[in-house]
Specification:
globular, two-stranded antiparallel sheet, 8-stranded parallel beta barrel, alpha/beta, 13 helices, single chain
């Protein structure tokens, strides 16, 4: 049975019987976890095992474990990390890439140990003075080449730890001045401005297995539709930016988007998203997603398989030494 073109959440720390039956029938490509799904390592290992067993395959399990505000797994069982921008500033230009590598390698070790194999990071958005606070300190820098360099370090650290990376929010969220969880940002920059700044990190990392779209209207590209619903923008992602991997939407239930859930699913798929991401774990909504997002086409199935083939066995690492080096690089910050 071909996988459904959607990635779904679940309601809590353990699967209920209705969820099990639904997932077994709907066959989502994978799952995404949130803080509501996380209690402790043993529970989380059981949950990831149960999710895969409902599908009968080694499905990808995603999480947003950026560090800082966007960190679904935290103390007392997992480390608390600085917001990315705070860490890169604390480490300084010379040490920032090494610090981001070590941080990513430690995060990957924590994820791999509980059965999570895809992290929705690096954030390749370039910070600007006007970047909305919901995103700004999740960025790595206000310089596009620095963002690209640090994002590559994150990818390398996660890959070494057996975890795949999802770059976001393609083709760039840094110019947005409102929070797309609640309102639809509209960016009036010229195409030349976007090319010179926002597109740069995504072009540099266009070899990654996964990317996530942005819910933003770019006037210079498509003044009528946010990127997730725009075949023009996705055409540019595939063409000029050169990303040929597996392209998922950002959360399709975010309030930035108009239309009902069914229309959002069909709109994202028609525009060129390989899969729709639905995060809140609401069973009734997930049934709508499964009914309208469809299953993979042949090219989409090939991109999905190619992305998953990038999973690697973690290398050997001295976790204590990596943690100590990271703390030193961020000037002895115990929360680093």
């Amino acid at each position: 049975m071909r996988a459904g073109a959607y990635i779904l959440g679940c309601a809590g720390p353990a699967l209920g019987p209705e969820e099990r039956r639904f997932f077994a029938e709907a066959q989502p490509f994978g799952f995404i976890l949130f803080a509501r799904n996380v209690e402790d390592p043993d529970q989380l290992r059981r949950l990831t095992g149960d999710l895969r067993s409902t599908l009968g395959r080694d499905a990808p399990i995603l999480i947003d474990q950026e560090g800082g505000r966007v960190q679904r797994m935290g103390p007392p069982h997992w480390r608390q990390y600085l917001p990315p921008l705070d860490q890169t500033q604390a480490a300084g230009p010379a040490a920032a890439a090494r610090a981001m590598y070590l941080r990513a390698r430690l995060i990957a070790a924590e994820l791999h140990a509980v059965g999570i194999d895809v992290n929705c990071t690096p954030t390749c958005d370039v910070a600007r003075p006007e970047t909305h606070p919901f995103l700004r300190n999740r960025c790595y820098s206000d310089d596009p080449d620095t963002v690209a360099r640090l994002a590559r370090a994150v990818v390398d650290g996660q890959t070494a730890g057996g975890v795949l990376s999802v770059m976001k929010h393609i083709p760039g969220h840094g110019a947005a001045q409102v929070d797309s969880h609640h309102d639809l940002p509209q960016v009036g920059l010229s195409l030349d401005d976007l090319r010179a700044r926002d597109f740069v990190p995504f072009r540099a990392l266009n070899d990654l297995p996964f990317a996530m779209t942005s819910h933003i209207v770019y006037d210079a590209l498509d003044p009528e539709n946010p990127a997730t619903f725009s075949s023009r923008v996705i055409g540019m992602i595939r063409g000029e930016i050169g990303f040929q991997g597996f392209l998922m939407s950002d959360d399709i239930s975010m309030q930035a988007l108009s239309g009902d859930l069914a229309a959002r699913c069909t709109g994202a798929r028609a525009a060129g998203c390989d899969a729709v991401l639905h995060c809140n774990g609401d069973l009734a909504e997930m049934q709508v997603v499964a009914g309208h997002a469809g299953s993979f086409s042949d090219p989409e199935a090939l991109r999905a398989a190619a992305a998953l083939s990038c999973r690697e066995t973690p290398d050997l690492v001295d976790i204590g030494a990596a943690e100590a080096e990271l703390m030193t690089l961020v000037e002895g910050r115990a929360d680093g």
